[in-house]
Amino acid sequence: MSDAAVLIVGCGDIGMRVARLLQKSGARVTGLVRSSESAAALHAQGLDAQTIDLDSPTLTLPAADRVFWFAPPPTQGEHDPRLRRGLAALRSRLPRRFVYISTSGVYGDCDGRWIDEDEPLKPQSERGKRRLDAERALDEFGGQTRCEVVVLRVPGIYGPGRLPIERLRRQLPVVQESECPWTNRIHSEDLAAVALAAMDRGCAGAAYNVADGQPTTMTDYFSQSARLLGMPEPPRITLAEARMQLTPALLSFLEESKRLLTTRMHADLRVNLRYPNLAAGLRSCLE
């Protein structure tokens, strides 16, 4: 990707990691962020940064050969007008490749089954429905233009600076293991490497499950994190009790259970994950 013009829309934690990898290859990277504070953080890393309002009706985007779209949808509703506005802005100066981070929530609840990318998309939460709307917009965009679009369906992200320290400190309860649904996750460093591989080697029009391939449960994640941090493990409650005590946002994760197959990711993108399981990944967070 040497000397390519690369645009990272929504250049937060994952975007910064991708940008650092791109710097090593000699790419010209511009990160788009919402605030001047975020722009200053990018400048401190030697990156070109611009502040931008993705909700502006007159949105314009810098020209780039390759675009990573990491900006989230709006927090409400079932559509992503933010991405659709961005795609409209790109039509005048079309990028060659476009990588989008979606969510495994587009599959909805799969009763704990192992699923691949051919699983029907039936999101239950508004969060998942917004991402499905974005995927449909990208499918249409790729079909109407010469831009090659690659979608990454990503579950929970963990890594340095992302551990649930405050939740553990407050001793918020978790669902007892016997009732807890299957969840999947990926380390932030591995996600950045996969995003870069998707830009280089992903098949145009393809979607990829991105996970370490070792699903556990949310309760296991919080328990392992607590042990790692030397904090008390969270109290356990029943699923019925959780439905009365937890927020709707947390409950939406407990209503979905699936295990992600990542065969396509490994075959097409040829990535070797640094953190192939939760135990290895959590240890890295304190190094």
Automatic annotation (TrEMBL):
InterPro entries assigned to the protein according to its UniProt record, in alphabetical order: Epimerase_deHydtase, KPR_N, NAD(P)-bd_dom_sf, NAD(P)-dependent_oxidoreduct
Gene3D superfamilies cross-referenced by the UniProt entry: NAD(P)-binding Rossmann-like Domain (3.40.50.720)
The segment(s) forming the Ketopantoate reductase N-terminal domain are: 6-55
Q: Name one GO molecular function term.
A: aldehyde dehydrogenase (NAD+) activity
All residue ranges annotated as the NAD-dependent epimerase/dehydratase domain in the record: 87-211
Provide a GO CC annotation, any one.
cytoplasm
PANTHER family reported in the protein's UniProt record: NAD(P)-BINDING DOMAIN-CONTAINING PROTEIN-RELATED (PTHR48079:SF6), PROTEIN YEEZ (PTHR48079)
User: What is the name of the protein in this document?
Assistant: Nucleoside-diphosphate-sugar epimerase
Q: Which organism is it from?
A: Panacagrimonas perspica
